[in-house]
Amino acid sequence: MSTSVLAYIADNYGVTTESHPDPILTMAGQLLLTEEGMQEFLIAYSPLMKALEPAAAGAYLISRLGSLNAAMQYMVTHDELFDLSPELWELQLYRSEKGFIEFRIVLQELKELNGPQCGLRNEWREEHLSRWYAGTIRPIVEAIAVASDMDIHHLWKIVPMRLRFIFGQWKEANTSEEWQARYEEDHLFVTKELKGEVFGQLRNPLYTKVVTVDYPGYPGELDTKIKLKTACCMYYRTEGGYYCYTCPRMKPQEREERKEQLRVQFAESAAAKIVAK
User: Which of 50, 60, 138, 241 has a CA positioned 20 to 30 A from the CA of residue 101?
Assistant: First the structure.
């Protein structure tokens, strides 16, 4: 395993061998696969993220664990892999300098796995991603659904948001035709070609259609199109929270009202900058 891959997932996804010096909470990874362990975690996490109900903490957790999922996908896509089985890591929560609650996956052991053999990458990719989703992500999603009394389909719909984002990031960072094709192929595979049974579902829940809405531009700028989230993040069920602009639960009329409010805010901001000059 190259040090560059380890450095990348540490810097970008918080998957590292270094423990935080002052964690608020540390939990063994395998406990998150159990109803009891998940209940314990959500009880501790809910007040930290100011949840008004367990479902909000559950939705936030699966969203934040998108970083762990991103680290696995990065390694598979780049043909360098080490074991992320839950018994080999701990989840740590800590408070950042800005006061936010952050997640860190601390590896207790670096166990390198074999990369794909020549001509057999597709089989290698399917084996490891199937094992990952069936053996780690699925039990976590199912434990959250039970512990937070949340619809499991809602939880699964949160997962592809991060996948869509990271593949987009990788495409922007590496513009070679070879890697562009690799990213496109791997994104297609994980969202469409992995079998539904891997997730305990009839169909692969990671496939979602892209839906866009208008977002207001600043004065003198055109409106743009932005993507709707694939599921509600439950921010509106936290203290002081509300529907995000890209929340699929927001009604068109509500979004239109929010859009006009943003236009007013942008105009006031632009005017204030002119006055400041």
Answer: 138
Q: Is the dihedral of CA 236, 240, 245, 251 positive or negative?
A: positive
pTM above 0.85, yes or no: yes
3-state secondary structure of 225: strand
How many Cβ atoms sit within 10 Å of the Cβ of residue 185? 15
Distance between CA atoms of 43 and 148, rounded to whole angstroms? 10
Query: What is the tens place of the pLDDT at every residue in 92-132?
Result: 999 999 999 999 999 999 999 999 999 999 999 999 999 99
Find tokens 């996956």 and name the residue. 105
For β-strands 112-113 and 89-95, DSSP reports them as unpaired
Identify the burial level of 236 via C-beta atoms within 10 angstroms of its C-beta, where 0-12 means exposed, 13-18 middle and 19 or more buried: middle
- The domain locations on the chain are 3-199, 212-276
Give the separation between CA 220 and CA 57, rounded to whole angstroms.
40
Q: Which residue, 154, 135, 134, is CA-closest to 144?
A: 154
125, 14 Cβ separation under 8 angstroms = no
The residue written with tokens 């692969």 in the block is 204
Residue 159: Cβ within 10 Å count = 23
